[in-house]
Structure formats: C-alpha cells, structure tokens
Specification:
Elements (H helix, E strand, L loop, with lengths): L4 E6 L6 H14 L4 E4 L2 E3 L2 E3 L2 E3 L1 H8 L7 H4 L2 E3 L5 H8 L5 H13 L3 E5 L14 H8 L3 E6 L4 H14 L4 E7 L8 H11 L4 E5 L20
Parallel strand pairs: 1-7, 1-8, 2-7, 3-6, 8-9, 9-10
Antiparallel strand pairs: 4-5
C-alpha cells in the first residue's frame, strides 16, 4: 500500500463496504497499528440532538482506535437516503474537496492508518462537478474493492476494476463478501475473479446480516496494508 491508508469502494451500494471497512480496521489494529475510519459523504442520516448521524459512520468510529470526532469522520452528513449529489442539492449543501482533505488529514495525524469508506459504487457523482474518483485522487489513497458475491458479481467487479484504472487510481486489493449465502457456484465465481483481477484478494467475508458485530481481526489479510 502507498501512503497511510486505503479508500474502500464497492461493486454496488448495499454490498458490505462498511462491514469490510470495519474488518480492515480490526485487522490493522490486530497488527498493533492505530487505525481510524472515515465516511466522507453519507446520505441517509437521522436527526439526533447532536446533529445528523449515519449508522455506517458510527460503525466506523466504534471500530476505530483512536476514534475520530464525528465531524471529521463524516463531514458531509445528508438526510435523504438517495444518491449523494441529489441528497446534497436537496439539502442545500455543496460537497467540496477541501473540507474532506482537511478532515482526512486531521484523522490521519492521530493514526498510523486510515480506512476511508466511499459511498455507493465506484462511479458515483458527488456534485455536478465532482465524481467519487476526484475525491480518491485528492486524498492520494489506493483503492480496495469490495465485491458483493451474488449473481452478476463478475460483470460488476470487472467493470469496476476497469473504471478504477481508467480514472487513474490504484487498485491495491479486493475483498469478497458473501452477501447471498445461497449463491450458486460462489467459489467458482471467486476463482474466476482471482484469475482476472491482478490485485490480490485480501480475504472473503462470510455472510453476516446487516447490524451484526464487525468481523474478527483475522478475517482479512492486512499484512500488506
């Protein structure tokens, strides 16, 4: 891995980026590293006495040591559970790179590694002028791709790998997540992906319902991170 962290993206929304990010944090902490999570942009936040809060961002904070301040972990918290550029526009918010870079730098200043979780799949607009790839380049982080193991994952994964390269970003590795425990030929699909993705497979997460505790520290191979 280059730099002091990774950016976690996925083949789609709802395929376990947060689960994988928490597992990465656990694996890094098991190596004796200070590791903290970040969710730069989150749509679908609930109102609390402390302001808007997002479940994924809170899960990352709980899995972090040291835990970052919420405002740094999730600088852009948007209320509606829709595409971030639409949620931001409807909330009258302008997503910009400078505050995201600053928040990331503050978190990284207190940690050995930072795990930054993206929003949705790879090719997600953040505003009329920004794509998610612009944020990844601005942070200077390599990418970890979470592949949701279900019918269609070969197409989604291989297209995502191509898009990451086309956007001049570095794919450092990928993680399989068994979101469909009944998927036919799951291991054959994994073998196909291993043969076609040059980046290493960091591990496969077993099926775990949303809201379950983060995976154990040995679920992923973080030795190269």
């Amino acid at each position: 891995m280059t730099g002091r962290g990774v950016f976690v993206t996925g083949t789609d929304t709802g395929i376990g980026k947060t689960h994988a990010s928490c597992a990465l944090l656990a694996a890094l902490r098991a190596r004796g590293l200070r590791a903290s999570g970040m969710k730069p942009v989150a749509s679908g936040c609930r109102a609390t006495p402390l302001g808007l809060r997002n479940d994924d961002a809170e899960a990352l904070i709980a899995a972090s040591d040291p835990p970052p301040a919420y405002a740094d972990c999730n600088p852009f918290a948007l209320p509606e559970p829709i595409a971030p550029h639409l949620a931001a526009a409807r909330a009258g918010v302008s997503i910009a790179l400078d505050p995201l870079r600053a928040a990331c730098a503050r978190i990284a200043g207190n940690a050995d590694r930072i795990v930054v979780e993206g929003v949705g799949g790879w090719a997600v607009p953040l505003s009329d002028a920004l794509m998610q790839a612009d944020l990844v380049r601005a942070l200077g982080l390599p990418v970890i791709l979470v592949v949701g193991l279900r019918l269609g994952c070969l197409n989604h994964a291989l297209l995502s790998v191509r898009a990451i390269a086309a956007d001049r970003c570095t794919l450092a590795g990928w993680i399989g997540n068994r979101i469909d425990p009944a998927m036919a030929c799951a291991d054959d699909n994994l073998a196909t992906l291993r043969a076609r993705i040059a980046a290493p497979l960091l591990g496969v997460l077993e099926h775990c319902p949303r809201g379950s505790p983060p995976r154990e520290a040995d679920a992923l191979d973080a030795r190269a991170l």
